[in-house]
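writing this on my phone so excuse typos. first protein, seq and then structure
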Amino acid sequence: MRLARFHTADAPTRVGRVDGDRITDLSGVPGIGTSLRAILPRLADLRPAIEAAGGPALALADVTLDAPIDNPQKYLAIGMNYRAHAEEARAAGIPVPVNQMWFNKQVSCIAGPYDDIVRPVVSEQLDYEIELGVVIGSRCRNVSAADARSVVAGYLVANDVSVRDWLSTRSPTFTLGKSFDTHGPIGPWLTTDDEIADPHGLRMRLTVNGDERQNWTTDDMIHNIWAQIAELTTVMTLEPGDILATGTPAGIGAPTRTWLRPGDVVRAEIESLGAIENRVTADG
C-alpha cells in the first residue's frame, strides 16, 4: 500500500492512496484526517477501510504531492554506512567510524518530493546523498534487532542534502550542515513495509541533469536497518513518524568537488518506492 499527502489548487492537504498513476482521496474514511503521521499507530486497524475506499480518484499529474510524513518528531541519519562510500571517504583522508555514527537533521529541513532545494548564500559546496528512508510506525524502546521490523511502518526515498563546508569547518557537529531549510526532500509517498520483501535488496539511483552519479543497492549497508533500530532504541524512544535515513552509497559530489548549482535537477529513485525530483535554486 502506498500512502501520500497531497493538495490541489482548490483544496488543502489531505491523505490519499496511490494506485498506479492515480491517487484516491481518503478524506471520507473515518479516522483518517489530514495527517499521515497521526494514523501510523492505527494503520493496521484502518487498513481494511483504506483499501476499500472508493473516494474521488485524481491523476497524480493533477495534484501536488507533499512530504508524506508531516511534522515528525525526529529525523535521524547515519553516516558512512555503505562499504563503498566508506572506502571513498577513507581514500579522501576522512576517518571512518567503527561504530554507528548518527546525527540529526532538524525536521524544519523537510521538503516535498518535488520542492526546490535552495542553495544557501553562505556556501557553494552543496552536495546530494540518496538514502533509503525508514519510517517508524509504533512507539518503541529497547527493541532487539530480531524484533526491529515489527516497529517499521514503511519506506520512502530521501535525499540527505549536505552543505559540505559547514560540515567540515563551520560546525563541530553535522547538525548545522545537514539542516538547512529545504535540504530534506522526502517522498514521493510512504510504501508500507508489507510491500517490500527485503529492504536490503533495493536498487537506488541518483542523477543530476540526467547524468548518473550514484547507482548501488541497499545490501551494501555496513549496519543493516534492524541493527540501526536496535542501536537507536537503546538510547531513545522512537515515535510513530520518526524518519531514519540509512546511509548513502558511493558517488557523492565531495570527493571530486562536483557541487550542485542553481538550475541543476536532482532525481533520486529507489526500486519499488518511486522517485523524488528537485530543482536547485539560489537563495533569495
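second protein below, same order as before
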Amino acid sequence: MTQMRNNLAGYLRGEVVKIADGFIFTEGPVWNPDGFLLFSDMPGDVRRRWSPTEGVNAVRSPANKCNGMAYDQLGRLLVCEHSTSRLVRENHAGEVEVMASSYDGSELNSPNDVVVAFNGDIFFTDPTYGRTPVFGLEREPQLEFRGLYRMPPEGGLDLMDTDFAQPNGLCLNPDETILYVNDTERAVIVVYPRLPDGSLGPRSMFAEGIGEIDFEVGVVDGMKCDAEGNVLVTGPNGIWVFDASGNHLGVIEVPEVVGNLNWGGPDWKTLYITASTSVYRVETALSGAPVPNMRRVEMSGGDDG
C-alpha cells in the first residue's frame, strides 16, 4: 500500500500500482507521447517498451546496457550506454549517431543519465558504474574524475564540474534556470544556476543526508522535477520529495528499490517508476516539469520511438 509521510497528503491521486515485472534491474524511463513508455532492463541488456494496450515488448537487444534516456526537441532519443561509454542519439528510423564518447583524448567513464533543455542544451553525468560487472562492462577508467558535461546546440563537449564521487541523476527546474545534480556516494543533491549563455554558475548544496549508502534499501539515483519545482529523487524505501527550497516533504514508498522515475500519460500526470525487477505507476496531482518531449507532437508530428 502506498504510504505518504509528512506533507505529501494530496500529492498522489491513487496507489502505486505494478504494471510489469520479471526484469533484472530497470532504469531510464521516458514517455513517448504516442502512448508508450521506454525503459532499460540494464543488466539484461535489453531496451523495452510498455504500453497499456500491448504490454511489454523488447525493442533493442543487445542495448549496450543502456541507462538514462531523454527525447530532444525534434523527437530523437538520447541514450546513455554503459558498456560502450557513449551518449548516442537515435533518429526516427532508429539510426544511431554517437554524440559523445571521449573527453580530452580519454574514453568517458559511462554516461549515466541525460536531460535536454528547450534550447537544445544537453547535460549528462558520467560516473563509473558502467565499468562494473552486471551493470556494464568491467574495465578500468581512463579518466581520473567523474564529471558533469554539457553539449551546446552548436556542438562540442564542455566539462562543467568534477567535484563528485559518483554523479548520477540530474534535472532542470520548470523554467530551466536551475540544474540539479545528485551524487550517489555522498547522498546529496547540488544545484547550479543556469546562465543565459548556457553556462552554469557556482554550485551550492540543495539537500544532503538522503539516507545511508545502502543499495539494499535504495540510494540517490534517478531524479526529476515536477511542474511546481518540487524535486523527486530516489532514496531509501522509495522516492524522496523536496520542495524548491530544499525542505524534505516526505517519501513515496515503493515495494522495491527504485532506480529512476519519469512522468508520462495523456496529461503528463502519471509518474512511472522503474524499481528493481518491476515497473510501477501512480497518478499525481502535478505533471512533470516541462521537457521538449511534452511539446514535440505539436512541433514535429510525433515519433516512432
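The helical segments are 292-300. thats all i got for now
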